[in-house]
Design brief:
CATH class of the largest domain in chain B: Mainly Alpha
Oligomer: heterodimer
Structural class of chain A: mainly beta
Radius of gyration of chain B: 27 Å
Helix content of chain A: under 10%
CATH architecture of the largest domain in chain B: Orthogonal Bundle
Number of helices of chain B: 16
CATH topology of chain A: Porin
CATH class of chain A: Mainly Beta
CATH topology of the largest domain in chain B: Cytochrome Bc1 Complex, Chain D, domain 2
Largest sheet of chain B: 3 strands, antiparallel
Shape of chain A: globular
Strand content of chain A: over 45%
Strand order of the largest sheet of chain B: 1-2-3
Distance between the termini of chain B: 99 Å
Structural class of chain B: mainly alpha
Number of strands of chain B: 7
Number of helices of chain A: 1
């Protein structure tokens, strides 16, 4: 079995905020290179095959979902569908989404609706070479009564998404203002079922809400400024079933008893995102700058069970995440090139609350609600996206074929300062890793129809096997941006490297 | 511009290359103590202990009476509770037990004229019924298999052991009455009333006859007949044997002497605040550097194996090895276990001094110091801490010490290197194993027993 200690034989808090890699409105925070399934890639995107380049290059399909004010650029009313499927190698998981969207405009007003149905497979520990690692068998003895009803182990989860957008373009001023709302009913987030090592079943339920107010100002000379204010709320409940072993003096043998735990996973985010784009002289190049601020609070984070990995209890936390970036694009006839470079400084502060008075090494007492462990993270992340596309005319009637190639490289570096107020001890940890994602795309365009295929595969991340049962969430979203995961394992952890492959086929039709 | 583009692409490829060979080596981050400890508990199989089922009230009542009644002893002068006193937490506080013929109770108990110490320490009966595989210091009573149906036992009585004993604890309760130094007495003894000790007349291998004789005594007392009838309804008196008495004694122990609500047990029940920080530090040492858990593991923190821990040899000795005590190695076919004794389960260990098979160490502090450097501790053992009568039987000669060290457990052959602070933390952890309700067992003492003999209290 290939087990790659993916850059963490010791690690610290993991914090993942679901966010779309191609957009920057919601900033992803991670402390371990856990494979993220592309569960929240639920909207059609044109630049997906170009590495998701987006600062200085418009994404004609995705932009309106990211900044509703960009719906002002819509042409005729269109229907779009973009069935998307992702899979994690070594049978570790996957999912499928069927979104349906329609966008239209009437005079100065424009709007859109989208619905998506999704099926997420239950996450599995990676297997290799035909050796399938399975969950540890339950003890053969019967549980003792009384027994709470434990949630069953599910094979798949169903999620539903609804998106609505409405905007108005001020005639003559080049100004557009729009709002959007995305609501998701979630019964499964990819990878969460592996976060509770040793559990016998998990029931997830909750919702996510993403509200955005977008503004787009366009000037003469192809200059534009866009701004997005967003508020994102993610709230999930995890009912986790365990079967605990104990020694039964009555039968004088080991026995088991069921245990049901309720966990809450909540994160609220406020964000502000600005992008300014303008041409570079008359060279065909365009340049754009972006800046984003996210303030995240984590009112409650789950108590994950990570087998073989000591975990510091997690309780509330908060994060301040920023990014600044620059992007270039050049269009030369049918060829388009784009590149984005983004730097993300992030500060996170998390802590563990004392559930009861705790005596410290120094002889004092931490009261109930006091902080027993404090984690302070300082991230310096980098992201480079680049892509190239080339269209080829297939005849005189507007038929064309297109090819896209791209690459995403992400580097994560952070320093953790941890203070254990019980033991009066301080520690530090530095961690770094890279992820790289080749992307590709093909498209066929007819006068009234566009069919696009986009794909990508992400390397450099892993998922825990069953023997190192700890598992972490993956996930991100387009406009969704959801909750987070905060755990603080501090012992050895090995991940089995996996690749995440995503395929999207989008079809765009005019509505008449 | 093209050059700049090439430069960017080059940087991207460089980053890919960096990603291919992983990342920078991670630094070590010591884990939080609870995280470390819970991982240790899992690794060493230290699972919680469930509740002890309520025992039949009739059995418990009969068992309590028998436990405190000297009628079970040949000379009618010693009850089970004499050496397992509630005031001494179901032990006697002595290094070596003093059986029949002795006078007094607890640490002040003294040998009778012409009597010898029982060769080993009387272990506390606290939690003896939880389900260990071995009982007695040399494990001469053992069971094989799991579960309530696994009532097959290996005992010195062999085939003479009557069937139907429900537990190892009940099987164990069959044997103190047959041991001469403990309860049965020597040939020619007369009991406290001056009558002939009929139990002492049997040979040492006449187990069945001894047990029958004890039952004759019991069933001659109408109150006991009534109690047996209540405890075993439907079983005629003619079919009652000492195994029924042993079953009742075991039921009483299970009901009254199971004490598993210690801070450590609450910690096992997922209450992180149940242990103090020094107890947690001690626990991490216990399961780590101090290596205690390599023997003291599982739900009872011991009780499942044997080890030669280099304990000084004290006492009159046992069997063919006398004046030494070879422990389990003295049993036929167990040469490998020379000087090895049962690894005791540790709950409530704070209350059960003195420690080891011969009570060589009076405190937990002394025990952990011994473990910190066993060879040195054995050679430099200070016998002056022993009671004078016991001190005379200390075997501190070089030959004995060399013999003990010759089969010393491999884990103890080198010093552990624990600091004073670590020793202190270890003791703190051991103290966290105490169930507060085990500190005062006086409520278990009956006002009287059916025979009318004095109740040890």
């Amino acid at each position: 079995m290939t087990q790659r200690p993916v850059c963490l034989s010791s690690l610290s808090t993991l914090l993942v905020v679901l966010a779309h890699t191609a957009s920057a409105q919601l900033i992803s925070i991670r402390t371990v290179p856990i494979a993220q399934g592309d569960q929240f890639e639920i909207f059609p995107t044109n630049n997906f095959g170009m590495g998701g380049v987006s600062i200085a290059l418009a994404d004609t399909l995705l932009d309106a979902f990211v900044n509703p004010a960009k719906g002002a650029r819509l042409g005729a009313a269109r229907f779009v569908s973009a069935p998307t499927a992702y899979g994690i190698s070594r049978g570790a998981g996957g999912g499928r989404t069927l979104p349906l969207a329609a966008m239209a405009r009437s005079g100065a007003w424009y709007g859109g609706l989208s619905l998506a149905l999704q099926e997420v497979d239950a996450s599995q520990p990676p297997h290799d070479g035909g050796i399938v690692l399975t969950e540890p068998p339950l003890p053969s003895v019967a549980p003792v009564a009384p027994a709470p009803t434990l949630p069953p182990r599910q094979n798949s989860y169903g999620n539903q998404y609804a998106f609505a957008m409405l905007g108005r373009k001020a005639s003559g001023a080049g100004l557009s203002l729009a709002g959007s709302a995305l609501w998701a009913r979630l019964t499964g987030v990819d990878g969460v079922d592996l976060l509770y090592a040793g559990s016998t079943g998990l029931k997830q339920f909750g919702h996510a809400l993403d509200l955005r107010l977008g503004l787009l100002k366009e000037w003469m000379g192809d200059r534009s400024l866009e701004a997005v204010v967003l508020h994102n709320r993610f709230a999930m409940t995890h009912d986790v079933g365990y079967v605990d072993q104990f020694w039964d003096p009555g039968t004088q043998q080991f026995s088991v008893r069921p245990r049901l735990e309720h966990n809450h996973d909540q994160t609220n985010t406020w964000g502000l995102h600005l992008v300014y784009v303008r041409p570079l002289a008359a060279s065909g190049w365009r340049v754009g700058w972006l800046a984003t601020v996210n303030r995240m609070s984590h009112p409650k984070l789950p108590e994950y069970e990570l087998a073989n990995v000591p975990v510091i209890p997690r309780d509330p936390g908060r994060s301040s995440a920023y990014n600044i970036g620059i992007g270039f694009s050049k269009t030369r006839g049918p060829a388009v090139f784009g590149i984005d470079a983004i730097y993300e400084p992030i500060w996170s502060y998390t802590w563990a609350d004392a559930a009861s008075p705790v005596a410290t090494t120094l002889g004092d007492t931490i009261p109930v609600g006091g902080k027993t462990v404090e984690n302070r993270f300082r991230f310096s992340n980098g992201l480079v996206r680049m892509g190239f596309s080339r269209d080829v005319e297939l005849g005189p009637l507007g038929k064309a074929a297109g090819l896209q190639l791209g690459l995403i490289v992400r580097s994560v570096h952070y320093r953790l300062g941890q203070h254990d107020n019980v033991q009066a001890a301080a520690r530090t940890l530095n961690e770094t890793w890279f992820e790289w994602t080749p992307t590709w795309g093909l498209s066929l365009r007819f006068p009234d129809l566009e069919i696009r295929y986009r794909g990508r595969i992400t390397h450099g991340t892993g998922r825990p096997g069953v023997q190192q049962s700890p598992v972490f969430l993956a996930g991100r979203d387009a406009a969704l941006a959801a909750g987070g995961i905060l755990v603080a394992p501090t012992g050895p952890l090995s991940l089995q490297e996996v690749g995440i492959t995503t395929h999207q086929i989008s079809v765009s039709l005019p509505l008449r | 511009m093209t050059r700049r583009m090439v430069k960017w692409i080059g940087l991207g490829l460089l980053a890919i290359g960096a990603g291919c060979d992983g990342v920078t080596p991670p630094e070590t981050l010591p884990p939080a103590i609870d995280a470390q400890l819970r991982q240790d508990l899992q690794r060493w199989g230290v699972v919680p202990i469930g509740p002890m089922p309520a025992q039949n009230a009739g059995l418990v009542g009969l068992g309590q009476a028998l436990m405190f009644d000297g009628i079970l002893s040949g000379n009618r002068d010693i009850a089970c509770a004499t050496c397992h006193l509630p005031a001494q937490h179901a032990a006697d506080g002595l290094a070596l037990a003093i059986g029949t013929g002795g006078t007094g109770l607890g640490p002040s108990r003294v040998l009778g004229a012409g009597r010898q110490f029982v060769p080993r320490n009387a272990p506390s009966l606290l939690n003896a019924g939880l389900g260990p595989f071995y009982l007695f210091w040399d494990g001469r009573i053992s069971r094989f298999g799991f579960g309530p149906g696994s009532n097959e036992f290996i005992t010195p009585a062999g085939a003479a052991l009557p069937p139907g004993l429900p537990s190892l604890l009940a099987a164990q309760a069959m044997f103190p009455v047959v041991e001469r130094r403990e309860m049965r007495g020597a040939p020619g003894d007369r009991d406290v009333f001056g009558s002939v000790n009929e139990l002492a007349q049997f040979g040492d291998s006449q187990f069945a006859e001894i047990w029958q004789a004890v039952m004759r005594r019991l069933l001659a007392i109408p109150e006991y007949v009534a109690m047996f009838s209540a405890a075993f309804p439907g079983t005629p008196a003619s079919q009652l044997g000492f195994q029924h008495a042993a079953q009742a004694i075991a039921a009483f122990q299970l009901q009254a002497l199971t004490k598993t609500d210690s801070p450590f047990d609450r910690y096992l029940g997922r209450d992180d605040a149940a242990l103090t920080i020094e107890q947690k530090r001690g626990a991490v040492l216990f399961f780590g550097k101090a290596q205690c858990s390599s023997c003291h593991s599982g739900p009872f923190l011991g009780g499942q194996g044997f080890a030669n821990t280099g304990v000084p040899q004290i006492g009159p000795g046992v069997g063919a090895g006398a004046p030494l005590d070879l422990g389990r190695g003295g049993l036929a076919g167990n040469d490998f276990y020379k000087f090895a004794f049962r690894v005791g389960p540790l709950r409530n260990v704070e209350l059960t001094a003195p420690y080891f098979h011969d009570g060589a160490f009076p405190t937990l502090e002394a025990v952990v110091r011994h473990y910190n450097d066993v060879p040195t501790a054995l050679r430099e053992f200070d016998a002056s801490q022993l009671a004078p009568a016991v001190r005379e039987s200390y075997h501190g000669d070089d030959a004995t010490i060399t013999a003990v060290l010759g089969t010393l457990d491999f884990r103890l052959q080198r010093p552990l290197g624990l600091t004073e602070a670590e020793l202190h933390d270890l003791v703190a952890f051991l103290q966290s194993l105490t169930d507060p309700s085990a500190r005062d067992l006086s409520a278990l003492i009956p006002a009287r027993v059916p025979s009318g003999l004095p109740v040890p209290r």
